[in-house]
Amino acid sequence: MTLYGVGLGPGEADLVTVRGKRVLEHADVVYSPGRLSRSVALEHVDESKIGDLDFPMTKDEEKLRTAWKAAAAEVAPRAMEGDVAFVTLGDPNVYSTFGHLRRTLEAFHPDVDLEVVPGVSAMTAFATALGVEVEAGAGLSLREAADGASPTGPGRMILFKVTDIPATHEGLVEAGYDVTYGRRLFMEQGETAVTDDPSELEERDYYTLAYAEKADLVVESATAAFERDG
């Protein structure tokens, strides 16, 4: 009798891990917090096993706490009687809605056994989608860039929730960064885009990230000598 937080990966059904798929197939009920995670879960389980939870789109903390308490009250008794999965895009412990449910359960239903099944996160899959190598010893900072924010400082950053690309781009370029954008990477829902032209992605989309690298950054890997010798 366990509640499993299952990471579904960035959105393509075949990027769910083997362990995650096994847990979904074994669970008595699979709870989904949203439409996109639900659609991925349905590639692995029958719709009759899906349980939807209602989370309001608001920043009102009182409404959010009420919603999470209601979700925990729904999930807890099911997890005490059998195995339950709560699915989320990406990884359950990386900027995920699952963290709110876990903390609420710990506060009000501490007897629920909990296990996390990690998933492929867009914050790691970006390297493949954008053709970026994060080599051994490299420094890479993860930052949020919603509503036009353009955090600066490290030589290389991965920014997520880039909802106002023109504003974010302006700030990053002024700070000396070269920027590449990726939208809906490895997602079956919506159109995938990779570009260094911010004008191509002016429409707001929550599932947009950016890779920013200082224009004057010098990275010398050990195997670079092979190119000179060749």
TrEMBL record:
Domain (Tetrapyrrole methylase) ranges: 2-136
Organism superkingdom: Archaea
Enzyme kind, highest EC tier: transferase
GO BP, sorted A to Z: cobalamin biosynthetic process; methylation
Swiss-Prot/TrEMBL keywords: Cobalamin biosynthesis, Methyltransferase, Transferase
Pathway(s) it belongs to: Cofactor biosynthesis; adenosylcobalamin biosynthesis
One GO molecular-function entry: cobalt-factor II C20-methyltransferase activity
InterPro entries: 4pyrrol_Mease, 4pyrrol_Methylase_sf, 4pyrrole_Mease_sub1, CobI/CbiL, Uropor_MeTrfase_CS
EC identifiers of the protein: 2.1.1.151
NCBIfam families (alphabetical): PRK05576.1-6 (NF004063)
Similarity-based family: Belongs to the precorrin methyltransferase family.
Protein name: Cobalt-factor II C(20)-methyltransferase
Lineage start: Archaea, Methanobacteriati, Methanobacteriota, Stenosarchaea group, Halobacteria
